[in-house]
Design goal:
This protein has 471 residues and is α+β, with helices and mostly antiparallel strands. The protein has four domains: 2-58; 98-186, Pdz3 Domain (Roll), CATH 2.30.42.10; 190-360, Alpha-Beta Complex (2-enoyl-CoA Hydratase, Chain A, domain 1), CATH 3.90.226; 376-443, Muramoyl-pentapeptide Carboxypeptidase, domain 1 (Orthogonal Bundle), CATH 1.10.101.10. Helix content is 34%, strand content 23%. It has helices at 2-22, 34-53, 60-75, 85-96, 123-126, 148-155, 211-224, 242-249, 293-303, 387-398, 412-424, 435-443, 457-470, and strands at 81-83, 98-101, 104-109, 112-118, 134-138, 141-142, 162-168, 176-181, 183-186, 190-196, 199-204, 229-233, 254-263, 268-276, 282-286, 308-311, 319-325, 331-340, 356-357. A hairpin with a 2-residue loop joins β3 and β4. The longest helix has 21 residues, at 2-22. It starts with a helix and ends with a helix.
């Protein structure tokens, strides 16, 4: 065993040496920067010592994964992420919106997979699977205690193959089984309908592969119905693919720049659209969860005065992430640029101010089935910024814990609310939102029932604006 370990370490040293020799030198130097060689040699020395001398045995992969995590922490880039090969494949499927499966999304609660959402028109919906169902087994294999990636891999599969699930449902005494036939699941990111005479409604939930084509088809179908004005709903749209956002924005803009991108060197580049303009009254609905690629679309429409933004200030995530394939099939996601609106307005950390502010309808509380459920992706600590922090704040406020302003920044008030919740739930009081805290937050019950009817005041105002422009 020791000989094989030494061989692997030797191979690691050779590989790292080859990487050092291929690294670029400083300006005016013929060879690589000596600091690269020195620091990488330090790393391989520590790697060697741990493998050969530590009393605690760990695998090579564990050490490398730990080193990658440490490097990403140093970046202080909240969007940076290391994907395992399995997680990378799931990310690709999510961006493409097409995969073989049964049509559900899952979250983890107390080590068990719970159904978060059932997609319409899928095997899961036809089998009567419901949100909050707990999936105990898949084809006889217990799922309790497995990681989310492993569970998703077991449930997804080739279209046409069968899977049997054993399910526990709140309020039902005994678990029951359902047999389903997997099929190709296509998650649609565009919805459209006619609201009233002359007013069309187009909702985009995210920018994945094919979103722009879907939006173009839906828009043409609405035009064929004789619309005279349009509501474009970008609320709760967390972003997605940059090229799809640019192409979608082109449906509403004249030919010209859609977004300004500034990279590491500080040089600005433009992504141009090739549209012909939009000849109908347009209202864009936005809220505090409109982010990233969705802000590109909304910001460009606002810059060109092609439509009015109605709702609340957007989230303010204006960074571009690039994904780099790794040798093992995994990937690394890094922030590589910042973007600005076509006329150069900054969005990051500020968001877009609507042309007309219309608060969202207040909700006194939610039933457990409708509660905001959190998905554990990373441990959240003070100072972290992101949509997952925003969801945390909304959940804490639902529970009456005063999670602070819902701004996506984990500050003092949010950390205090987390500590209060951890104390009441019997968890270690750290203020850090780890997997156990997420599980407990998802299990907690709301203090008030959900209102029977909630008016969509933002949509109502958007329709009124278009109606006024048509007079």
């Amino acid at each position: 065993m020791r000989i094989s370990r030494r061989l692997v370490v030797l191979l690691c040293l050779v590989l790292v040496g080859s990487l050092v020799l291929s690294l670029p030198g400083r300006a005016g130097q013929a060879g690589p920067d000596p600091q690269y060689r020195f620091q990488l040699n330090r790393f391989t020395q520590v790697f060697d010592l741990i493998i050969l001398a530590s009393a605690q045995q760990v695998s090579f992969r564990q050490l490398i994964d730990g080193a990658i995590s440490g490097m990403l922490e140093v970046l202080e880039d909240p969007a940076a992420q290391h994907f395992t090969p399995e997680a990378h494949q799931r990310h690709i499927e999510q961006m493409e919106g097409v995969f073989g499966g049964i049509g559900i999304s899952l979250t983890m609660e107390d080590g068990a997979p719970v159904v978060l959402q059932v997609f319409p028109g899928t095997p899961a919906e036809r089998a009567g699977i419901m949100p909050r169902d707990l999936i105990l087994e898949a084809d006889g294999r217990g799922l309790i205690g497995l990681g989310l990636d492993a569970i998703v891999t077991l449930i997804r599969g080739e279209a046409g193959t069968a899977i049997t699930l054993r399910i526990s449902r709140p309020g039902v005494d005994e678990p029951f089984t359902r047999q389903l036939l997997r099929e190709i699941i296509r998650v649609r990111s565009v919805e459209s309908r006619l609201l009233e005479a002359g007013v069309g409604y187009l909702r985009i939930t995210g920018f994945q592969a094919g979103t722009a084509a879907e939006a173009r088809q839906a828009l043409q179908a609405l035009r064929d119905q004789g619309i005279r004005g349009l509501i474009l709903d970008l609320r709760d749209n967390g972003g997605g693919l940059l090229d799809q956002a640019v192409e979608t924005a082109s449906l509403f803009l004249p030919q010209g720049p859609v977004v300004r991108i500034r990279g590491r060197a500080g040089i600005s580049q433009f992504r141009h659209g090739h549209g012909a303009g939009f000849d109908l009254p347009l209202v864009v609905l936005v809220n505090g969860r409109t982010a990233s690629a969705a802000e590109i679309v909304a910001g460009a429409i606002q810059d060109y005065r092609a439509g009015l933004l109605v709702g609340t200030r957007t989230f303010g995530k204006a960074t571009v992430q690039s994904i780099f394939q790794l040798l093992d099939g995994g990937a690394l996601k890094l922030t590589t640029a910042n973007y600005f609106t076509p006329i150069g307005r900054a969005i990051h950390g500020q968001g877009l101010q609507p042309d007309e502010v219309v608060p969202e309808a207040e909700r006194a509380g939610l039933l457990p089935e409708a509660a905001i459920l959190l998905q554990y992706r990373r441990t959240l600590t003070r100072g972290i910024v992101g949509l997952d922090v925003l969801s945390l704040q909304e959940r804490l406020n639902q529970l009456g814990l005063a999670g602070g302003e819902e701004d996506g920044v984990l500050g003092e008030a949010t950390e205090r609310a987390v500590r209060e919740f951890q104390r009441s739930a019997g968890l270690p009081v750290t203020g850090a939102v780890d997997a156990a805290t997420v599980d407990a937050l998802n299990r907690a019950r709301m203090p008030h029932p959900e209102p029977a009817v909630v008016r969509d005041t933002q949509l109502e105002r958007g329709v009124a604006i278009i109606r006024g422009q048509l007079r």
